[in-house]
Amino acid sequence: MHGRTENQPPLDQSGVALRYLCAVLPMLFHGTVLVWVVFRDQDRLASALVDVGLGVIGLVLMRWRRRRPWPIALATALLTVFSTTATGPAQVAYVSLCTHRRWRQFVPVALVSWLCLVAPYGWKGVTQASVVSTTTGTVVLGGLTVFGLYLRGRRDLAASQREAALAAEREQAQRIEQAKLAERVKISHEMHDVLAHRISLLSMLAGGLAYRTDLTAEETREVALAIQENAHQSLNELRTVLGTLRRDGGMEAPQPNLANLDALFDEVRGAGQQVEVDDSVGNRELLPTQTGRHAYRIVQEALTNARKHAPGSRVTAKLGGRPGDGLRIRVSNPTPSGTSAGPGGRLGLVGLAERTRMAGGTLSHAVQDGHFILDARLPWEASHRDSTGDRG
């Protein structure tokens, strides 16, 4: 088998070092025993060197244990027949094989490893020491098998958790994109009604100039300024429409704007929601219909969000601005402890953020001093009529 198996993550440097350490420690132990044996019997120097050499070979073979787990585990197990220092590399290679959880591979290697454990005593004879050694080796082999299977279980669990997290992220991203698309489509429907209204108004004003001959110069100037203002607003609203997707469907009812906020506040108060309003918007009659509609939707969503996540709390809504300075909306409410957004939470805010961005404004939300604060800023250009009003 070539390459890493499925659900087997790559090892970092610390993981590689740990596995080589697990192989080297038994080698050092058996190497120390060999030194003591050679010190007592010089004739065993050659066999000790062979033992250590085979152990080093087993250590080198460990490098390919993940690419070829079965051949490396089998080869290092066979080395233990002639080398005690090869025990460490053989054990690490066997555990690596067990993590693949392929029974047809690690069961034969486990049997070979056990036979290699008892093989030396076949020609040396059975003694009490050999029985103790065989029993200990068998217990260690069983423990290594359980440990390898446990590691594989942990890897499978971690892999499934990663996949679940990625799936959740993809699902959330899809919901966000759907919310953005739905908001764009909703805006395009709204813009259709507004543009139709403004174009018909322009047609009526232009028709008046074409057929009425009784208008004074000042009245003609006022009509021309009205046409200019409506044309300017139409261009601004058309820029918002361009780039959005338009679904075919029936016409919607006229959309509310800033003038309908009082009715909205009365409605939610009647339902039991506590709302405190600070409205300091100046020259609100000059606010573009498009901006007023966005402002209404932002306040509406903020009140809905407060009812969902902080029921019974007092909501404070502050509105301010004037032509040339922009329109600011700030809605805040206390944040109960232990609350969190569900799987579809904050999608309303995502839609508002997309709406505000398309309108050329900004929207932010944060929790400060135990209060959830929604802050929106919408552009409000100074109209030509406003700038020339003093001279008219």
Short key terms for the protein model shown above:
392 residues; alpha+beta; Heat Shock Protein 90; 3 domains; five-stranded mixed beta sheet; 12 helices; rod-shaped; disordered N terminus; disordered C terminus; transmembrane helix; Sig_transdc_His_kin_sub3_dim/P; phosphoprotein; EC 2.7.13.3; two-component regulatory system
Task: Describe this structure as you would to a colleague.
With 392 residues, the protein is of the alpha+beta class. The chain folds into three domains: 13-125, no CATH class; 171-241, no CATH class; 258-388, Heat Shock Protein 90. 63% of the residues lie in helices and 10% in strands. Strands 1-2-3-5-4 form a five-stranded mixed sheet. The radius of gyration is 40 Å and the shape is rod-shaped. Residues 1-7, 244-253, 341-345 and 387-392 have low confidence and may be disordered.
